[in-house]
Amino acid sequence: MDTLGPRIKELRLEAKLNKAALARRVGVSDVTISYWESGAIRQIGHERLVALAQALNCPLSRLLEETGTRATPLFLHSHPPLPWQDGRQKGIDLPIELVPGQRWDGDCHLVTPAPGEQFDFLAEGDLVAIAPSEIFRQPGLYLIDDDGILAIRRVNQGPTGELVFYRKNSDEAMPWSPACRLVGKLVAHWRLQPL
Questions:
Q1: 95 shares its domain with 46
Q2: How many domains does the chain have?
């Protein structure tokens, strides 16, 4: 299958939805669904693709597989370089309504743990949107480079403004060291759900 339209139709029929029901879930008209499925509208914004995947109860990667608009997630390895540093991948725009409570500007990148890699806060098959940033913007999950090892840590500010790092399931703070730096803020997280 080489177009997105037939994939949408196939997944809609698998989900046992008519065009009107899918349109309500995505927040568009049923005519728009028809245009997408027929290929009359070939460009679909990322926010609509995410809404389609949610409405069809499938991973975004399945919706996009074998299409000309394929948005393959980047693999995150535990050692640099950062997944987006090769310059071949363009960032994505996430609509602010998909990530309530987040403050960031600039590109995000879709990232998933590379096969065999283990990261705190991420399971195999998880998909995250990471905004490259070396600046602490607000408490939350960050991708950090800790002396040449990439890790996901919960980051807060201490009482005197210093950054404090936490591992998953731990309230014990890890001290900041000059070898540790922020490299990205996790602004959205999708967990793989069995169908």
A1: no
A2: 2
